[in-house]
Design a protein that fits this description.
This protein is of the alpha/beta class. The protein contains ten helices and ten strands. The structure holds adenosine-5'-diphosphate and magnesium ion (MG). Magnesium ion binds next to α1.
Amino acid sequence: MREANPVISLRDLRVSYGEIEILHGIHFDVKAGETLVILGGSGSGKSTLLRTLVGLEKPSSGQIWINGQDIAAISHEELYEIRKKTGMSFQGSALFGSMTVGENVALPLREHTKLEDSTIEIMLRLKLEQVGLAGFEYHMPSQLSGGMKKRAAVARALAMDPEILFFDEPSAGLDPIIAAGIDQLILELKKAFHMTIIVVTHELASAFLIADRMVLIDKGNVVAIGTTEEMRASAQPRVRQFLDRVPEPDVEGELDYLQTLTEQYRRHA
Ligand code: ADP
Ligand code: MG
């Protein structure tokens, strides 16, 4: 199979908050249809990198290419078209507390499309179904558990049928069983829709389960990039230091385990 052009290319990307540079020249590609996990300790710049990729922070220098377009060099309209094809699930879910779950999911559709209300209604129900939240459209976010809020945020990120999906710490703050359900959801999205998925996490077990490739970031620099196997086999001291904090997960057994967990979860939902 011919290698497709990268969906995202970062070239010497630098990002600062005021005088302080946080990302010091990030350089890597994201391939079409892969799940790339961005790993790194707290404060290493992972969220800043994602926020920059979705346009919430401006690079101080360097380039971001998305689908072959340098996003700093294109028109407002072209950028808007690219934005429509990306979905983001934020670290803290970021649902609007004063709107129902359904209204939250419908927001991108109302903002980016001229679809009829009745069509939007059908689409938001489909998206909620995809994340295991069928029937919750009239609930308020405050009535949902932590894991359900994350799922609702994923449904909203899926609203526009994005080609690229970003997740910032999708399982942070969730208990292990619910977190496993979110991992399973990401695996399903990848399998069913062949989306390009970029996940920031510091959970190693989750990372090894969902990733095709991984990028390790430390203090605003890329330390290593490679497939899960390459990372596992890496002799680079900083990679070993990061990966050996906890025992390596038994991915085979874990997949079966996750399968049963999510089936149970579905039955109870
Ligand atoms: P991570 O997601 O890897 O934990 P972040 O990207 O959130 O890291 O943060 C990287 C560094 O940037 C940290 O030192 C953090 O304190 C700083 N930082 C993050 N957001 C801001 C901001 N809005 N203004 C100033 N500094 C920030
Ligand atoms: Mg973060």
